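Anyone opening a protein record will find just a pair of labelled lines. With that in mind, the following record should read easily:
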Amino acid sequence: MYHTVVELDVSNQSGMLSDIPRQIGPRRETSVGGIVNASRAAGSMTFRSNAEFATVILSPVDMEAAFSSDRLQKFQAPIGMLVVNPSNIERTLRWNGLKQNAAIAFRPATYSDLAAAELEGGHWELQPPKFGHIDLWALRLAQVMATEVTRPTQNSLYLDSLLTVFGVHLLRHYSSAKQQMLSPTARRLSVQVSRRVAEYMQQNVSDSIPVNELAKISRMSPSHFIRAFKLTFGMPPHQYLVQIRLQRAERLLLETTLPISDIALQTGFVSQSHLTDTMKRYKQITPAKIRHLR
């Protein structure tokens, strides 16, 4: 058994998850927030965070937990158990076996921005569920995010979208705020808006595009934009961006003599192997074979 003491400083914009030890597991941060795919052997931990963050249990484990100076209480943490950790309250945890969970944090402005866009008046206060509460929707999102951060290369827009949906889910179901009523016509992007969004993605194909930026162009909340985009284009924003990048890469492969590694970087892929793997997955062909078609 081991014990660690951690101060989680979520206000640190440059390293929101930097206070969580690296050996706990892979992690990723976006413009919205961050996630750690945590895996720890039996042990204990005392921590305090300056903001709320969520934990979703990915494998069952027997635990003990206490807030502040309260006595430790024993309980079984089942798969899908959701815990919303309050801010500025010391918490102690103990577990007697392998503990696997997703730790999901949001930047200080994210909750406020999401609440203002998604909820009536933007006034809210998180109301953590009781210990043992299972949330299957939160589990599905957490499992997808946890898998994504273990990949050698990740799609930032994909994680951005998942974190946005997760944050809205917390606000809708575990806060005092009320959800805004949607207009029945606010389901698809208009022709003008869809054109602006597509042009922006084309012009910034090599950059990491935050979902918040696309939502601002559309003058919609992030979660409404994600749904409207899929209804309009037939796929979520991150898949559409991948298609744009592959089309641009294919054109450069056929029309230029640029090295494949340079083409990869110019089209938003982190390396030649990333471009190759993505092209094989979506197009069933490699960049080298496309180049030989010239």
